[in-house]
Amino acid sequence: MKLFFVGIGGIGMSALARIFKNLGFKVYGSDVKETPITAQLENEDIEVFIGQTKENILKVKPHLVIRTNAVSEDHIEVKTAKDLKIPVLTYPQGVGIISNLLPSIGITGTHGKTSTTAMISKIFKDADTDPFVLIGALYSEFGNKNFRIPTRSTEEIQNKVRKVLRKVLKSADNITSTVFTRELFEKHNIKKIKAPFYFIFEADEYKDAFLNHSFDYLVIVDVDYDHADYFKSKKQYLTSFAKAILNTKKAVILNKRSENIQEILNIAKSLDKDSQLPEIVDYSSFIEKTKQLKLYLKTDFIIIDASAAYALAKKVSIPEDIIIKSLEVYKGVWRRFEVIREKSKNTPYIINDYAHNPKKIYMALLALFDFVKQHQLKKVTIIFEPHQYNRLYTLQDEFVGVITKILKKHHRFIEAFIITDIYAARSTKEDRETIDAKRFIEKVNRVLKQKKIPFRVIYGNTPKEQVEKIQKNLYQCDAILCLSAGELGILVEKTLKG
Predict the structure, then answer these.
(1) Burial letters 219-256, b for 16+ CB under 10 A, else e
(2) What is the pTM of this model?
(3) Given Cys at both, which of 80, 177, 291, 384 links 54, Cβ 3.0 to 4.6 Å?
(4) pLDDT 10s digits, 334-356
(5) Any residues with CB less than 8 A from the CB of 20 and at least 6 apart, and which?
(6) What phi and psi, each to the nearest 5 degrees, are found at residue 104?
(7) Tens of pLDDT along 178-196?
């Protein structure tokens, strides 16, 4: 059976393609340009077309197409597949084929998904449970890949996936991007198999992606309103998490001290008044114990993520000594407060972080000043590339509040706070007219002046210009933190880390 991945060079798509290749499928794909990931895929006997055209689909004649969420229904390869009556699944629907087939542990939340997934998968690996893992970042524990195939992957699983896909193919005319994989399994009465391991994966909330899955266990790390381009209100956003809870069979691990979590639980109860919620495990009860561990970075978000991982591992009866040892040797994951260059006599630490919403920015900045304290640093530079016009415009007051709060407390340690042009992912012409980096900076500086904070934020032009300045060592400080889910983070990594 031949599968074709549209946008195969993406971090999640490439991993899913490799998983299906490992399960015995013939895998092809396309992307707009050649990257190190596409080169790796070619070396693994996955044919990748550089350039996305109608002819790619006509040449391969796949039985199934899986597309990245970054392309629309109007994409030329997607349209060609549909014209040929080839079923098209989105990336979350593709992941759902695995999550609905195997015992599964999903990790979700606005913040902390990747780090918590990394911690949990490491604990399960160290406990010799041979987990099946899909994570949203490269991880040294898996040979700098973002997935792990169990060594006990059986012929039964391969055959079952093939049977499932054959049934999915029969539903081709009825499959749209709004049909959840979970519903396809229910329609065809496909039950989970009793595999000797768990499928541990990040369950993203964007566009209700995590509603494709039926979970055995669900970990909700932290929740704050986000993705305003899709979720038009906070209530809609929280309701999506409530629905994910109702799709969980055994237990949900969450923080009962959180107001948003309490609201989610109330919504879940109102959505299904006739049945009980799954067991609720409060990971906040593990926070004090986690604080006593020798974690690689003792900052709030690492403690929160580790507490959630601790609670889940305890729930599935992993021995406590293994949990503690595993968490204490955990050293972080790609682009989550990742030190990509150590400090030398003449050059600063370079730290890369994927933070892009107000809460993530705040947590990364708190981590920075914990890092300053731990390493006795004097001055730091912060470079922030806002991600999406819509997000910055909708949450501008929250962004301003976070930046102001940090500068009020720590401005004496900051050499410069620089904001670059906005990364325009999924941004419309109307979005671009609502705000720009300079207008946002003016607003930040007005608030700083009103609050009599002796500091001014600087406009940094393009991310490329900032990376060139870092290369030339123009910032005289002990550490530079790059906050970016866009071009800046990629350029810093490519230039400084290779």
Answers:
(1) bbbbbbbbbbbebeeeeebbbbbbbbbbbbeebbbbbe
(2) 0.81
(3) 80
(4) 788 888 888 998 899 999 998 88
(5) 3, 27, 94, 161
(6) -130, 150
(7) 889 998 888 888 889 888 8
